[in-house]
Structure formats: structure tokens, C-alpha cells
Design goal:
It comes from Adineta steineri. This is Peptidase M13 C-terminal domain-containing protein. By secondary structure, the protein is mostly helical. The chain has one domain. Helices cover about 60% and strands about 0% of the residues. Helix 1 packs antiparallel against helix 2 and helix 1 packs across helix 4. The protein is globular, with a radius of gyration of 16 Å. The two termini are about 25 Å apart.
Length: about 110
Amino acid sequence: MNGERTQNENIADNAALKQAFFAYQQCTKTHKKSEKKLPGLTKYSSEQMFFLNFGHTLCEKMTKQSAYSYIMTDVHSPSQFRVFGSTSNFVEFDRVFDCKPGQGNSRVDKCSVW
């Protein structure tokens, strides 16, 4: 994978997740209806579900050949790195899942744009 080729999209992923989360928070403050829980997922808060949904939207399975082609040519990092990279740099992810820096997916040194 070429980090120089994916750098712009990596930055965009970090910024987009941050803005989408803050927009979600604003929307839930404005529209104070209680959100319904999905069966089987009731242990997760609304904010945790936001991040689970983010990961789900990038969930994919590729053959080895497709993955190799993707890594060699695409301007995006592979999906799992897009999810891990964006969430590991976002302090709100740590807060929502009660992660300490360096624990799980939480980085000690976060990269923040904007």
C-alpha cells in the first residue's frame, strides 16, 4: 500500500467521521425523540451504534487477487484500515466506548485535522 497515494483520502476519512458524528449529536439534540433500540443490539448506546454503523458501511470481503489490485491502485486504504484509522484518531470514539489511550483501538498519539 502506498501511503502517499492514500494520504488525502485518509485525512478525508478522519475529517468526515468527525463532522458526521458532530452532526449526528446536533441532530439528536434538536430532535429529542427517543431512539428505538434494535433487537440484539440493546446493550449499545445511540452513540456507540453510530460508530458500529460507520464500520458496517465499510465492511467488505475481497478475494486475494482483488485485495492485491485494490492495494496497488486505489487511492483509498483498505476498508478495515479506514475504520481503524479514523476511529483510533477520534477522541469521541474513546469517550463513547470508554477506551483509555493505548487500549484497544485507541492511539496514545492521535492525529487530528481541524
